[in-house]
Write a structure and sequence with these properties.
438 residues; 5-stranded antiparallel sheet; 5-stranded mixed sheet; globular
């Protein structure tokens, strides 16, 4: 598994061109990960900064840089934060360069942050007389044990949940995985292996909204239904008590007793405080909260019909999808083609929960996404089935999808690539134009 921040080895330095002339100051650096695997990302680097075989530190896209001296040239180039090409919270975004590889007219996107190993070492360990630098080590084991992301303050970017988020029941259930696909550029060797096996791939358009999961799980002999966002489980009842009335219509409002440090209810007329367990028999005045996850699971019919489907076939399933539309900004990108539409739920996967944990159901099963979604009458992501002969052919197919959607007036976030009849691969290919900074 590729780390957030890790030591890489420079494998190639490729010249870039503009209007037929080679760039004087920059080039593309290619590298392999610590495990020897090829990285598919391109990173623009200053000429003379690296040599083939030299070590560097690579930080993945979509992670946030902390405001320390090592990263100030990215956060505030020349001391000016307005010149930064980072996103919100110092998030690393793709950077579009109007340069091309020789024989091509396509722009180059630089993904991630690459720094000379010596520069990072100097920041972390300068003045530490007991530190043995990487170049002096017989093996990189000490670095494998060092959490470079923690040491450098690099954190995962999380878009906050937006309008339409209501009452929370707890954290995301531990028996399910979070739907965060691996970027194909981090697993090039694995993808090449699967292609060599002759497997078919299903490609679906990635929608930019908020992650949604509705599950149906047996507890004892009864089904429990649950609805979740990316990181939280929702309360199924989105109403809460705002006030109470006693039998004489005296009103009690929420109150915190500072003397006893106790939450409860207070009646101004009676100057009386009561704790929660003393409100039995009182008339509760409630208010319903808008929660897009619960509303869309209900209005789409998924809660009712999904449960009926599970009972009919003796299944335990979780339905994975994206809720998209107005108020559900996802990444917040202004070109999001779904941002101004009416809110809706689009399913992109179904998981089996029968073994006590979530396991993706692929198209070898009768209970696959397409067939079950049609039965339930819920929108799902159409799949394009391909059987590429090479890795580059697969990437070209994805790029063709981006171009086709752009002709339709849509700049999409990317696509998800999965093996059709096995669970050997599930990854994303991001559209360079969608989230890049020029």
């Amino acid at each position: 598994m590729v780390k957030i921040v890790e030591i890489v080895t420079i494998t190639n330095l490729i010249p870039v061109f503009k209007e037929g002339a080679e760039a004087n100051a920059i080039q593309v650096a290619k590298f392999s990960f610590d495990n020897g695997g090829e990285c598919g990302f391109n990173v623009i680097a200053q000429k003379g900064l690296y040599e083939i075989g030299s070590k560097a530190i690579y930080i993945q896209p979509d992670y946030c840089l902390s405001e320390n001296d090592l990263f100030m040239s990215f956060i505030a180039p020349g001391g000016d934060p307005k010149r930064s090409r980072l996103g919100k919270q110092n998030r690393i975004r793709a950077i579009k360069f109007n340069f091309s590889f020789e024989g091509s007219n396509d722009p180059i996107y630089s993904n991630g942050v690459l720094l000379p190993l010596e520069e990072v070492e100097a920041f972390l360990f300068e003045g530490d007389e007991n530190y043995c630098f990487y170049s002096d080590m017989p093996s990189p084991e000490a670095y494998r044990e060092l959490d470079l992301a923690e040491e450098l303050g690099v954190t995962k970017y999380e878009e906050p949940e937006t309008a339409g988020s209501g009452l929370i029941a707890g954290d995301f259930p531990s028996f399910m995985y979070k739907t965060d696909e691996q970027n194909i550029n981090n697993i090039v060797d694995h993808v090449k292996k699967i292609i060599s096996e002759g497997q078919e791939f299903g490609i679906t358009i990635k929608r930019d909204g908020s992650s949604h999961t509705t599950y149906f799980k047996l507890e004892d002999e009864d089904y429990k239904s649950g609805v979740c966002s990316r990181s939280q489980e929702k309360k199924m009842d989105q109403t809460f008590v705002t006030e109470y009335l006693d039998e004489d219509k005296n009103l009690y409002h929420r109150y915190f007793d500072k003397d006893t440090m106790t939450k409860g209810w207070f009646c101004d007329v009676l100057s009386q405080f009561r704790e929660d367990d003393e409100m039995d028999g009182f008339e509760a005045i409630t208010k319903e909260v808008k929660d897009s996850w619960i509303e869309l699971a209900t209005n789409s019919g998924l809660l009712e019909n999904g449960l009926a489907y599970c009972k009919e076939h003796g299944l335990q399933l979780s339905f994975r999808g994206e809720i998209i539309g107005s108020g559900l900004k996802g990444s917040g990108n202004k070109v999001n083609p779904d941002a101004n539409d009416k809110q809706k739920l689009v399913l992109f996967g179904i998981d089996d929960l029968s073994e006590g944990f979530s396991k993706r159901i692929n198209y070898s099963s009768a209970h696959n996404l397409r067939d079950v979604s049609k039965i339930l009458g819920i929108e799902y992501t159409d799949v394009i089935v391909v059987k590429p002969k090479t890795y580059n052919e697969l990437i070209d197919i994805c790029e063709d999808i981006f171009r086709t959607e752009k002709i339709k007036g849509k700049i999409i976030e990317g696509v998800v690539v999965r093996t059709m009849y096995t669970n050997d691969l599930s990854c994303k290919v991001m559209h360079g134009d969608y989230d890049s900074r020029k």
